[in-house]
Amino acid sequence: MPKFKKIMIYWLPMLVWMAIIFTASGDTQSSRHSSTLFEPLLRWLCPWLAPPRVEEIHYLFRKICHLTEYAILAVLCWRAIRQPQRHDPRPWRWPEAGLALAIVWLYAASDELHQVFVPSRTGQFSDVIVDVSGGAIGLALLWVAGKKFKQW
Question: Running DSSP on this structure, what letter comes out for residue 69?
Fold first, then answer.
């Protein structure tokens, strides 16, 4: 396969997802802005919830979004590194998964550093932990799926 085609097939999806994460780290996706949509919707769906509980659910929702977006990033990183083919006979390689997780960690740390310079955002080390945990969960799910479908 030509090198340009490999880049487009394997690396471009990862880079596009990184760009999506980067844009989500801007002001428009801050907690202050997402609360104007999420919290009224939650109050409409569950009017019996106390305001502190609504804020807790909103916080939890945001952390689950972090986990999910970085789980997807980890799988895309692994895919770019491994470049799997149909009926790939190669076994699972933990160094490939480790490299994918290292990329996730570096990107999560750089994303939090970026947020330090966004007025309505704050960079938090705890978010890096959440992001890397999401990446690890994504890779673990990929490994389990590969075992279940006898891929490795």
Answer: H
- Mean pLDDT, range 53-80, rounded to an integer: 94
For residue 130, give the nearest of 50, 75, 57, 64 by alpha carbon.
64
Report the percentage of the chain scoring pLDDT > 70.
95
Residue 82's identity, in one-letter code, is: R
Place of tokens 């330090």: 116
Q: Which residue is it, tokens 């190669």?
A: 90
Q: Are 105 and 128 in contact (CB under 8 A)?
A: yes
Q: Retrieve residue 14's tokens.
A: 């990862």
What are the residue ranges spanned by the domains of the chain?
A: 3-148
Residue 80 is encoded by which pair of tokens?
């770019």
Residue 67 in contact with residue 133, Cβ under 8 Å? yes
Crossing angle of helices 51-82 and 125-148, rounded to 10°: 60
Say which DSSP state 28 is in: G
* CA atoms in the 13 A half-sphere facing the CB of 99: 11
Q: For residue range 74-100, list pLDDT tens digits in order.
A: 999 999 999 998 888 899 999 999 999
